[in-house]
Amino acid sequence: MSRRCQLTGKKANNGFAVSHSHRRTKRRQEVNLQWKRVWWPQGNRWVRLRLSTKAIKTLERKGIQAMAKEAGIDLNKF
């Protein structure tokens, strides 16, 4: 499974690690992903998703049904 948020699609970013002498080496900035069980009221069950912490905060505000519709995913498959 790729390290990608299932609702927002966030993924790793390429960047540079810059030393004190300002030498640059490639590095990856990974997304802070968490496994999260979310209650889905329309399906009347728990759904287990791999979400970024930003998505978890947004989920509390918008709700799982609205975010899944924006992402274009079917929650019955999870």
Task: Kindly describe this structure.
The model has no long low-confidence stretch (mean pLDDT 96). The relative contact order is 0.23. The chain has a two-stranded antiparallel sheet. It has a two-stranded antiparallel ribbon with strand order 3-4. It contains two helices and four strands, in the order ββββαα. With 78 residues, it is α+β, with helices and mostly antiparallel strands. It has one domain (13-77): Ribosomal Protein L24e, Chain: T (Roll). Strand 3 (33-40) and strand 4 (45-52) form a beta hairpin.
Main sheet: which strands, in order across? 1-2
CATH class: Mainly Beta
Output the CATH homologous superfamily.
Answer: Ribosomal protein L28/L24
Distance, first to last CA: 14 Å
Going by CATH, the architecture would be Roll
How many individual domains? 1
The shape is elongated
Strand count: 4
Order of helices and strands: EEEEHH
Q: Which value, in Å, is the CA radius of gyration?
A: 16 Å
* Poorly predicted sequence stretches spanning 5 or more consecutive residues: none
Number of helices: 2
Overall structural class, as computed from helix and strand content, comes to alpha+beta
The whole-number mean of residue pLDDT values reads: 96
Largest sheet: 2 strands, antiparallel
Stated plainly, the CATH topology is called Ribosomal Protein L24e, Chain: T
Query: How much β-strand is present in the residues?
Result: 35-45%
| Portion of residues within helices | 10-25%
